[in-house]
Amino acid sequence: MLFTFLSPVWNFGLPNKSVRSNLSVCDNNVEELTHRRRFLWTTISVALTVPVSADAAVLQSGPCVSGEGEACASLAGENEFIKALQQKSAEKREIYAKEARDAYNMKNYPDYFASMTPPRILVKKQDGTYKSFTEAEFDELKKAGKISLEYATAKGGKVRDYSLKPMMILKD
Fold it and tell me: Domain locations in the chain?
């Protein structure tokens, strides 16, 4: 058993009896500490020796992500509702990927560009790419009416994502 194996090597992290007798701590505290450490090591050793069984077929099955992948058919089985959900997910996969990409860019890059010298402002273009402008360039575009605000959405545009700052969009 693992517990018996660890006990001579680790001695439960306790000093030997000669050192323990020289401690200035009262014997009750040492015994309580000894009891706690033995209980901890016993619990850990039991947890490490309990066998964990897993179904190898589940672990070795292929991926099914956003309704696409080699395991989707086997996961759905004969359930038409699950097949319909997988089909909807596959159709909206690109929309969800775009939302995730936009959320990542708007959470991580505006602060980076603002810390540059001179500070720059990240603006999203109509085609979905991003461009940074200096504050002077940005002010000129804003005065010309070429900058608008767009609020981030999630779930394919169904829900407004208030955890993100509004995106500035460059109009053509």
Answer: 2-49, 56-91, 93-170
